[in-house]
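A note from the maintainers: we've had questions about how concatenated examples are separated. There is no special marker in the raw files; a new sequence line simply starts the next protein. For clarity in this README we add a label.
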Amino acid sequence: MSSDLVVVVTGANQGVGFDACRQFALAPRVAKVVLTFRSPDKANRAIEALATATGKDKSLFDFVVLDLDSRDSATKAVDALPAKIDRLVLNAGAVTAGVKNGVTATFSSTVGHGILTEGLLEAGKLQPGARVLYAHSEVSRWIPAFTGLQPCCMSIKPGQYLYSKVTVGRKCLPPCFCLPATNQLGTYGYTKIVGGLFFSQLATEQPGVYFINVSPGGVFTNIYQDFPWPGGCFIRAVSCLMVPLRIMHPVDVGAKRYVDAMLVEDFPSKFESGAVLGSPCGCCYYGAMGPLTDQTKLGCCASAPYLKDPALMADAAAKVREFGQIPGAKAIERG
């Protein structure tokens, strides 16, 4: 099998993004892995580490500077990225406090991903047959093992109620415990809901490109480093127990979800474009691990049909474009 695929990964300096790049580099069909970073120094260190971890020559890797909080940086990255991108993994993101560009710092990277993706579509760099993955999260629906840490009052409806959660940050509503960790995790959950709705809408507008929302599942990465008390302290303290208790899985397992969605030949026949995938829910799956499952068809109280609601999808796309001043790209038909 010839090596012909160009893969681009955002947020690749550590955690799931880094390990996904490692796995992509070892895949026979991948000819180039392009990573995005805020600074060349971080990029060079990551490429050195990837070359060491894979035994591959550094020429297999390349990087582009990208700050997703900057519209100008995202636009420049569109120009700097390769002329043809076969696989685009939108992994960058964090649970971060504060406000940037009129939206929460957590949501800002999703707006940046919207600017980047629609810019690549408009530039013709994502051609028929390309695949785009948005890193979703199971925080967007109920997970039994995380009860008490997750945000509650996750009622989803169109209009300003939903977007107030990503513009000014989520506010506590009864019966929430009003803990900082719950509020911050709530903002992250709403960010992933709106981002996933946006990319699901792109799937309807761009039939020639395969869009898929994939949660890496429960993985202990740097995302918890800035988590406020007491949630972050608790998760860090019990992280060593999460895998044996079948609540979370190792980072490489989470990264493999990305790799499978991007490289497995018949993956698009198993899950339609625009689907939202994560862990199953049931007596054996009470955490965020297990085989990829459509999150709108879980068949239990954790099922989240709102993640593919057509009205919410169109509404989310309009709002992300408004926040990012994105004109919208012309449609790419199937090849």
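[label: protein 2]
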Amino acid sequence: MEMIIITANKEVLLGSLPHDCRRNILSYICPTELYASYAATSRLCHSDSLDAQLPQTKFGEFHVTGRGETEINMESLLERISHASFLNAWQSPRSHMKIVSHERDGAVVTTKVDDLTFEEMQVQASSLSFGSITSLDLSVSHCKHGGELNRVLPRGITWLLSTMMPNLVKLDLSNLHGGPIKEGDSISELALFNATNCPNLSKVVWNNRIGGGYFLRGRDLKTLTNLRELWADNLLCDWRYDKLFAPLLSQFFDENSIIQRFFFFACNEKLERVSLLGGRYVKIGTNDAIKFPQMSLIRFVRNTPQLRWFRSDLAEENVRMLSEERPEITFVAS
């Protein structure tokens, strides 16, 4: 079957167009069902869709739940990943992996209770590697229900993905909640993507994150030794998520606190680009979300030596003051 394009009231057979012309047309089609439909039209169209110069060929979706499954079965997941057809499908030029099917009715699905042990998973996953993947998208849809739904990724999934992607550069966790983190905990969402597993990871996007104040300390981010860029717009730090560290929130937000902390103090030395637009926190003992104080944002800028770009809710007068102190920084308001 030949595809026909109608231009200026004339019918043109798609096959009569030069290959580079067809490729340019294809480049404007998003990597969704429409792109897949084009590829299934004919052998010619299928061949076009595999052109390495097309941005769509770099994009792929990975279903972590099988057909009909309502929870993640790590055993069947590892079997699917280990299959030769799957390994071949995730070679170059594919570089962007979007995780799908890990969300049901606004909540993140869980793993089977009687699933594989960590040791069993480690044995099966030790030989798996997707070296072409440089961008991993674990984000879910934005949820208006706040903290009512479970939106924390199962640690088994983050561990498995982090061990398979040695060349990862960008990680997106947007709209996910950050689980309660205890001091010394090394299996958080971010700590798993550490310098040992993902030495090239330099950009983290975690917009609309809801979680405790422990995240502001930056200890999870510290394990990402090459982190240069952090996007955390609409960040909400809620003391109810990690009550053990709730008293420490005052160190970031209370001007009268004996100990004064600045955001991400454990990992800020290499940060160059940071976005904290719309940041809020819930004061201990209350339920009301309050905007990040100006002095907290100012303190972060003054104590982040490599910062070159900062997007936030800084007032104009504070931007002018900081621009005189740090003229090398570009300040963005929206």
